[in-house]
Structures are given as C-alpha cells and as structure tokens.
TrEMBL record:
Alphabetical list of Pfam families matching this protein: HTH_5 (PF01022)
Matching NCBIfam families: HTH_metalloreg
Keywords, in A-Z order: DNA-binding, Transcription, Transcription regulation
Protein's recorded name: HTH arsR-type domain-containing protein
Organism: Polymorphospora rubra
HTH arsR-type domain segment(s): 1-87
Length: 87
C-alpha cells in the first residue's frame, strides 16, 4: 500500500477519491497534465494495492476508497499520544 502511495500522482488521486463517496474517472483525468492511459495505469496500481475499488457504469469507471484498507493504513500509522507519566 505504501509503495502505491509513494508516487505523487497516485497520492493525489487517492486524496481526490477519498474526498467523496465515489468519483468517475471522467472527473479525475482532467485534473492532471497526463494522458488517460497514464491515469488508468496509476488507478490500476491503487486497485492492485487494495486501496480503491471500482465498477464500470456504461462508458465510465467509478472509483471509491476501500474502507478496510484505510483502517489498515490508519492502524499502521497510529502513534499513541504520550501519557502524563511518560512525558
């Protein structure tokens, strides 16, 4: 998961996808100065890493965050606040 998020384009895509319940690839692509196939590649990396899921509706593909993946990332990144006794 961290490797997938290590690329600035994928991190930005992930941020955009996480900011809404779901988003169409047609709304993601214009936000980047990259070709459609390049954006599709980055989205595939995010899918393969288990960070997002997608489904095709007609011509377009819609993406949403996988909540369980976000919970896993959150657990890995959780740093407990220091307690009064250890501070």
């Amino acid at each position: 998961m961290f490797r997938a998020l290590g690329d600035p384009v994928r991190l930005r895509l992930m941020s955009m996808i996480a900011s809404v319940p779901e988003i169409c690839v047609c709304d993601l692509t214009p936000e980047f100065a990259l070709s459609g196939p390049t954006i599709s590649h980055h989205l595939k990396v995010l899918r393969d890493a288990g960070l997002v899921e997608s489904d095709r509706r007609g011509t377009w593909v819609w993406y949403r965050v996988r909540a369980d993946a976000f919970r896993q990332l959150g657990a890995l990144l959780h740093i407990p606040a220091p307690t009064e006794a250890s501070a």
